[in-house]
């Protein structure tokens, strides 16, 4: 009997009987509890497989104060193809799938380490356990194996499967993520995550709106004297489609706490990106076709905008035609985590960036360090052009 990602067609037929073709699928109907304790991996995967069997559709994720726990190990391969996801979007070429939470995500959690005396300035000292569940949240508490090869696929909570179409090796037509927060697990012993949130590199079209990709706890604690450490693992918050993709849309998207925050390519149109506590906040591998970002809020990132090394996650390193309308940033210098203190506003040692960027620092030393980027116009907001 044929299966889709481990779910038999017979099971899907029973689950789908009584649902009209026009109705969105609700993860609760597939057994998800959303109590923060039950492993909801199978329920989510069965819902995804049901959409794949129908060929298109929306999966609705109701708000839950405790969040949806994804605890099952990630799958290295699906149907013999690389994946590395705990939840898998099946390789169905024509598939058009949307996964949507109940309401837009609320940004942002406190990811900087504030000392106890900061209470004098009306700041609360950072402590573990301070993060609530104000968003429709899918979280993982599974710790993946460490992956230190930059060319290997990253482990993520949700992943597409490698296909055969175009240079991006696409296997799915379109994936949309709306109103959802994904939380990867922060290893408290090492103080860095070993997995990321979402990998859509094998979807030829990707749309992400009002969503957040972060860690399951604060990245620093003054009382415990711990903070986020440099990550030897090549983790990513959100990776969009690979080379030769079609439209890539991001609107009101936040990413926090990873070695690479957003990994992007060509055809990107984005508005209001929030990057926080990443070693490299926004990373472009290839943008032969122009990509445009309207506004970026960048707080406490080691590098805000960079170009990828050749072969990162299987992407080719090529010219990156990028326009960034504005970057509003805080450097994090003098605050923990040390790994989040600004080293470069733009890092492009191969001079592959073409286009422009305008930056603004509301307070600080007024510096925006640049490495390379000889072909990229960088201007401070308010300067005469």
Descriptive notes:
The mean pLDDT is 91. The chain has one domain. By secondary structure, it is mainly β. The protein is globular. It contains two helices and 30 strands. The strands form five sheets. Strands 3, 4, 5, 8, 9, 11, 12, 16, 20, 22, 24, 26, 28 and 30 form a 14-stranded parallel sheet that branches. A ten-stranded mixed sheet has the order 6-7-10-15-19-21-23-25-27-29. The chain has a two-stranded antiparallel sheet with strand order 1-2. A hairpin with a 4-residue loop joins β17 and β18 (226-227). The chain has helices spanning 9-16, 41-54; strands at residues 3-4, 7-8, 25-26, 56-61, 68-70, 75-78, 81-88, 96-101, 137-140, 156-159, 172-178, 181-184, 186-187, 192-193, 196-199, 203-215, 220-221, 226-227, 236-239, 248-256, 260-264, 268-276, 280-284, 287-299, 303-307, 320-330, 344-348, 353-360, 370-372, 376-380. α1 (9-16) crosses α2 (41-54). 6% of the residues lie in helices and 41% in strands.
């Amino acid at each position: 009997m044929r299966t889709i990602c481990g779910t038999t067609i017979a099971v899907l037929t029973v689950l789908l009987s009584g649902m009209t073709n026009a109705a969105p699928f609700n993860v609760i109907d597939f057994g998800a509890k959303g109590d923060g304790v039950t492993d909801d991996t199978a329920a989510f995967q069965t819902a995804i497989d049901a959409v794949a069997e129908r060929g298109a559709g929306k999966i609705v994720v109701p708000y839950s104060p405790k969040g949806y726990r994804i605890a099952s190990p990630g799958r290295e391969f699906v149907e013999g193809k690389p994946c590395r996801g705990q939840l898998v979007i099946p390789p169905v070429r024509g598939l058009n799938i949307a996964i949507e939470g109940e309401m837009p995500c609320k940004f942002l959690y406190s990811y900087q380490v504030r000392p106890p005396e900061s209470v004098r300035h009306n700041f609360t000292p950072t402590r573990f356990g301070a993060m609530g569940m104000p968003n429709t949240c899918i979280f993982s508490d599974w710790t993946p194996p460490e992956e230190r090869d930059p060319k290997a696929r990253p482990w993520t909570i949700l992943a597409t499967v490698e296909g055969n179409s175009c240079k991006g090796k696409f296997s799915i037509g379109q994936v949309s993520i709306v109103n959802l927060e994904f939380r990867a697990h922060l290893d408290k012993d090492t103080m860095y995550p070993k997995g990321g949130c979402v990998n859509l590199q094998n979807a030829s079209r990707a749309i992400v709106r009002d969503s957040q990709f972060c860690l399951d706890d604060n990245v620093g604690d003054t009382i415990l004297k711990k903070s986020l450490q440099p990550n030897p693992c090549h983790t990513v918050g959100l990776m969009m489609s690979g080379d030769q993709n079609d439209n890539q849309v991001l609107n009101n998207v936040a990413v926090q706490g990873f070695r690479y925050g957003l990994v992007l390519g060509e055809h990107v149109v984005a508005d209001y990106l929030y990057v926080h506590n990443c070693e490299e906040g926004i990373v472009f591998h290839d943008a032969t076709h122009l990509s445009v970002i309207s506004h970026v809020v960048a707080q406490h990132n080691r590098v805000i905008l960079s170009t990828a090394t050749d072969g990162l996650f299987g992407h080719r390193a090529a010219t990156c035609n990028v326009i960034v309308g504005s970057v509003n940033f805080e450097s994090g210098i003098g605050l923990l985590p040390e790994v989040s203190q600004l080293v470069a506003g733009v890092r492009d040692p191969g001079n592959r960036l073409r286009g422009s960027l305008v930056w603004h620092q509301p307070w600080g030393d007024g510096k925006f360090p640049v490495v390379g980027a000889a072909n990229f116009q960088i201007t401070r907001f308010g300067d005469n052009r």
